[in-house]
Fold these 2 entries.
Entry 1:
Amino acid sequence: VAEVSILNYGIGNAGSILNMLRKLRVSAEIVSAPAPVAAAQRLVMPGIGAFDACVQALTEAGLREAVLEFAASKRPLLGICVGMQMLTLGSEEGSLPGLGLIRAHTARFAAREGLRIPHMGWDRVHWLLPAHPLACNMSEDSRFYFVHSFRVTCESPANCLATCEYGEEFAAAIASDNVAGVQFHPEKSHRFGLQLLKNFASA
Amino acid sequence: MNSLRPRVIPCLQFSGGELLKTRRFRDPQYLGDPINAVKLFNDLECDELVVVDIRATLERREPDYAMIEEFAAEAFMPLTYGGGITSVEQIRCILSIGIEKVVIGAAAPDGALIAAAAAVFGSQSIVVAIDVKKTLLGRREVCTRSGTHTLAGAARLRRGDAAGRGRRAVRAIHRPGRCARRLRPGVDAGRERGGSDSGDRLRRRRQSGRYPRSTALEQRRRRGGWHYVRAAR
């Protein structure tokens, strides 16, 4: 079994995450069925596009239960972009419930004069929990590539791993025990993203 | 912060495994291996990168998926591909390889493709290329197919707008010494308006005496065929 398994449920960009893990010389594979998910060491859940479309695709692929069981087994799980939003209780963007693995909510950026939505481009993130394995060796000037119109807020500040500011402060990374999520795309964020995936692969 | 820092996005042109530099979309010069160039720009940590197959449409080729896959393997930044895209299925295939955005050029006047692609993949991953060329009259025209065909620019821009495209890349072909200069949308509004203001400009020039009242070119324009003639170089 590979060190990192990347979940493919029909939506999302598993290819570029696989490329970056290869660059790190981490053995990685793409999984799309419940059995390999159950056997995985670490699981990455990507996501792109609409919240409901992602949740529905995950459910239809029979992977929703598999991911919940994986998370309950205390093995590391990382959600990326909409994959992170799916870890929350739900999103304003859709009507389907999220996985609810982290007590947080996903909502649209508040409309503001001069604020372009989506939030697209490189931005700095502020790491609030430097002791967390994912935040290991992250400098204060680390910057990441974001593309999103919806942002996550945690019910408890203890779950907020990193913040970013775009019109308002939002959670750029969230974590609860073995489950974590990042709003940005580490697979497209040069050495900063490499560091994050390296941290995840050694978590 | 309400705004992000500006992104610098180099644009590489290639064809048949060769990285090319053109001037005014002509005189291609061989520069080296495109995959190596992508790797170099990745090492330089540029914000994003655009790679365009400049002959795919002219040669009626499918996008070179094997090549795109090699680009994606070298680029740990948002990567945009353009060249030869005519269908949603092709876009699906390119994005699944690990490309972030696609450029639609020759197929853009058919607004249906832009609308369909934006609906499926989100407007943030669809870029409409608008190549602008200055003609002998100083007018600006929108071209496709590496500048070999011109269109009624204003109509094309509007079609792109209505279709909800995410971004547009405006490039000026006529700039001396450079094949393409990316212009920031909104900064050079005159250029973006394409052909829409060209009639006014012609009239202004005539009034100011800087332009002869009647020339062969203007007669041609009056006949209404001007927008569709093959670009005079």
Entry 2:
Amino acid sequence: MRARYPDGEGFVDHGDGVRIFYEVYGEGPDTICFLPTWPIFHSRTWKGQIPYLSRHFRVIAIDARGNGRSDRPREREAYSRERHVADVLAVLDATETDAAMIVSVSPRAPLALQLCVEHPERVRAAAFITPQLWQIKEFVDPFTAGDRVAYDGYDKFNPRYWKRDYAGFIAWFANSIHPHPHSTKQIEDTISYGMDTDAAALIPATVGFEMYERDEALALAGQVRCPVLVTQNGGGAMWPKTCSGPLAEASGGRLHVFDGLGPAVGSRWPVAMNLVLRDFFESVRETTADAPQALATGGGTK
Amino acid sequence: MRARHPDRQGYAERGGVRLSYEVFGEGSPTLLLVPGWTLPARSFKAQVPYLARHYRVVAFDPRGTGGSGRPRGATHYALDEHVADALAVMDVTETASAVLVGKSRGAQTALALAVNHPSRVNGLVAAAPFTPLTPWPPLDAAWSSFQQRRGWRRQVQGLGTVLREARHVARSKSFRLFGRSLAPTEAAKWFNRPSMEADYDAFTEWFVTRVVVNDPYATKQTEDVIGWMRETDGEAAADAFMGDCLRDAEETRKLLAAIECPVLVIHGDRDITVPFEWGATFAELTGGRLVAMPGAGHLPGGRYPVKVNLVLREFVDALVSATLPETVEAPA
């Protein structure tokens, strides 16, 4: 049972033999596209957002390669950022979406950034939820630590552990991003998304997707021309907060901090997340109405 | 922190017992919310903010709960006392008539009030009504252990009642549910005065986690109900349970037959505190509407507030449009 069922769905394959699944909700000239996530999740992770936002906008949700109803290639090359960009463009084409307002989360922020910079005509606005643009020590260290006798806490962020006890990793992860009481449903949901795939897909998806270097990311952020929203959770240690401020500043975007909420604001506090997203996208809708004229007279760079 | 704070609060007083009440909103008609056993007005917290946007809502803490007095002795918790309390709250809040929303044990109060003071009642909503209509072994066991002195012999007799009646109702869905989640021996061990008075915290935890809230993903609702129950104590809880309330089906049927106002019954089909059959029969005998909540336990208003609120609103709006002509004539 779902609160809202899609009005359309389909698959795209842009030539590398990997089928990518997407859903479309609602209709109208303004489209929000939830980008592929790190495939420990799939598009159902947006279930707290879609029923609300699709009452006001057309909404597209994409299952990342590696989970959901998309294929699960096992080679790291299949998970390059370039392939993800092609996936998104193929879905926008298939759904006849000239340009979308995109939403990325955590380690798929680089995908959104590349889309903004290299395909500005396809992106009207970008919301970065708890963005992670460059590698950070907290994840790199355990990930590259090699085999251990025992894996405690963050040690579990290690592909050797995923191979040995994938379910154990998923359970730890689901609990880590939902440390607040009364999150039993969110924890169960997160476990079910994670268990829809396996270590043989999650490992290449994690190592195959290129993150940026810090300087490179911020230089690119400075080239972004569309409106930007960056949201940062105010609670929980799981996801680092180091990228949010610099990204918002470099892109001239708006930074919204969810005081005391998080890490997983969208699932545990959907109303808080939905109101912030809607507010941002409504402001884009209003500006864009005047945009053709402004472009005609102003032209050039900002 | 509350989603909606009362616009007015105060106390009614009857025979030295004060009754804490709150008023929200100023729409029409007025809804009077009557909580269940050991629960205060806050137990309607998922209903009040929504309903108060459309109607005037009056909620009170029944004697023995929340901010109301805790008279000692079961006689103070008789059904007549509860009805008189509800009327006192209506009087002090200048509520000529109201739609009554009674939950669990509160449905008894609402029912008796509607029968005895029909001019004060526009409609009756019974949520998981604790109104005995068919044999319910777990409860019969609890009552027999209450009526008798403490001691193992009586406990065993109580257990005997469970087993004897269990045979007659073993085929009912509610009882199968109950049997699957709770051994009758466990129920008999906990649900009695000595257990409530000896360690009320342990009793409330057992009662809420094992009996009242059996819905998945209801950790907050569980904590809330335990917290509200713990605002009172074991003695008041036992007195209130023993109070001279509706005990047998005949008496209940007589009251139901006398109901003239529109009736809505909301009942979870996985309720093991009050059997679903009671709610279904309540609706049948009053010609009321039955809304079964699939998969829900005893307190659907807490776990599925949106559904319950929409059903409540639909019922009240239908009442309002049905009585519209009268309202138009009223000024004359």
